[in-house]
Amino acid sequence: MTYGLPAPNLAAPDPSRSRAIRQLYRILRVPEAHGRRLLRRWLSAEQLAQFDARNFFDVIGCHTAKRYRVYYANVANVEEIDKVGRPIKRYCFIPKGDLVPGDVMLAQKIALETDELAALAVANKFTPRPQRTN
């Protein structure tokens, strides 16, 4: 019984369609992979270990020596944390442009390590997220 459904097309896929799908995948994924690779090159050994294990890394602010945790995301992904890693405040500050998470995180890392007060001056501030369990 076919229940009125058309028979599946078991012919070989259309090569031009397959090429178009592969090209679209590369367009969408390559910038993210490049951004992630560039970010990894700029991380210290400790930050890289954190990033590989938890998908975030900690940064020490250059002016206040406060600790910030930068999560893999594009927005509202920076938290000021206390000495035991609990969030105190959450920040959103991003560079202009349509950037992938790795590029955004690298810009945030550099901003906090080289001009923390200027970065925080333009940041939107939020109450912290509930404590993460990962």
Q: Which structural class best describes the helix and strand composition?
A: alpha+beta
State which percent range the strand residues make up: 15-25%
| Radius of gyration from the alpha-carbon trace, in angstroms | 21 Å
Rough shape? elongated
Key words describing this protein structure:
134 residues, 3 helices, 5-stranded antiparallel beta sheet, 45% helix, alpha+beta
Describe the overall structure.
This protein is α+β, with helices and mostly antiparallel strands and about 130 residues long. It has one domain (about 15-125). The chain contains three helices and five strands. Strands 1-2-3-4-5 form a five-stranded antiparallel β-sheet.
What topology emerges from the helices and strands here?
Elements (H helix, E strand, L loop, with lengths): L14 H28 L2 H10 L1 E5 L6 E5 L6 E4 L5 E6 L8 H22 L1 E3 L8
Helix pairs in contact: 1-3
